[in-house]
Structures are given as C-alpha cells and as structure tokens.
C-alpha cells in the first residue's frame, strides 16, 4: 500500500451548497476548497486551477459536459478524482 498523498487544495464540482463537506475536508488537512456549482453555465469552460491536489465530482448536480471536461483535464494533469453521489432519504409519513 502506498503512502497517503497530502491534499491541501481541493476542487469540489457540483452541488449548490456544500453542507458539512468543508468541515470534513479541513479536518483531513485541506487548506483551500474551491467550489464550482455544476449546473451553472459559467463553469462549463473553466480550467482546473493550478496546484489542485484532489477533485471531488458530485454526480447528482453536474452536467455531463462539465463532468467529462473536468475528467479529461484531471487525467492529463494526473489529479485524482473522487466521484460522489449524494443520496437523499425522505422520512416516511
């Protein structure tokens, strides 16, 4: 098993609000979290910022075009991606 990579700068793509995610990432050692709302058209042609150590893609709230663009950029730069799918539970009446 390899050594755990130090993650300081995280790009989180998708979701309108991050909820408890930043608190968890900071607890794991992240120093900076960049958030792109995945349904916003202004994010469609963005480039991944420099020095990003990890990308988290929230699959529920991201367009297919943006997801594919981010995956392609991450692969070419060797940046690991975590694919996250939010599951919502509704309370039965």
Task: Summarize this structure as a short list of keywords or feature phrases.
single chain; 93 residues; alpha/beta; four-stranded parallel sheet; 2 helices; 23% helix
According to DSSP, the number of beta strands is: 4
- Give, in order, the helices and strands: EHEEHE
What is the overall silhouette? globular
Rg measurement, Å: 14 Å
Name the beta content range.
Answer: 15-25%
Q: Helical amount among residues, as a percent range? A: 10-25%
Mean pLDDT across all residues, rounded?
85
Distance from first to last alpha carbon = 47 Å
What do these coordinates show?
- This protein has a four-stranded parallel sheet, with helices on both faces.
- It has helices spanning 21-27, 64-77; strands at residues 9-13, 32-36, 54-58, 81-84.
- The protein has 93 residues and is α/β, with parallel strands linked by helices.
- Helix 2 (64-77) links the parallel strand 3 and strand 4.
- The mean pLDDT is 85.
- It is globular, with a radius of gyration of 14 Å.
- It has a domain at 9-15 and 23-34 and 42-84.
- It contains two helices and four strands; from the N terminus they run βαββαβ.
- The chain is 23% helix and 20% strand.
Outline:
The chain has 93 residues and is of the alpha/beta class.
Give the topology.
Elements (H helix, E strand, L loop, with lengths): L8 E5 L7 H7 L4 E5 L17 E5 L5 H14 L3 E4 L9
Parallel strand pairs: 1-2, 1-3, 3-4
């Amino acid at each position: 098993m390899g050594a755990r990579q130090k993650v300081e700068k995280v790009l989180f793509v998708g979701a309108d609000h991050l909820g408890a995610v930043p608190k968890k990432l900071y607890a794991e050692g992240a120093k900076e979290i960049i958030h792109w709302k995945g349904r916003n058209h202004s994010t469609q042609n963005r480039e991944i910022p420099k020095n990003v150590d990890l990308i988290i893609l929230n699959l529920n709230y991201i367009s297919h075009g943006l997801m594919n663009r981010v995956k392609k950029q991450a692969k070419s730069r060797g940046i690991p991606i975590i694919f996250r799918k939010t599951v919502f539970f509704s309370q039965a009446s």
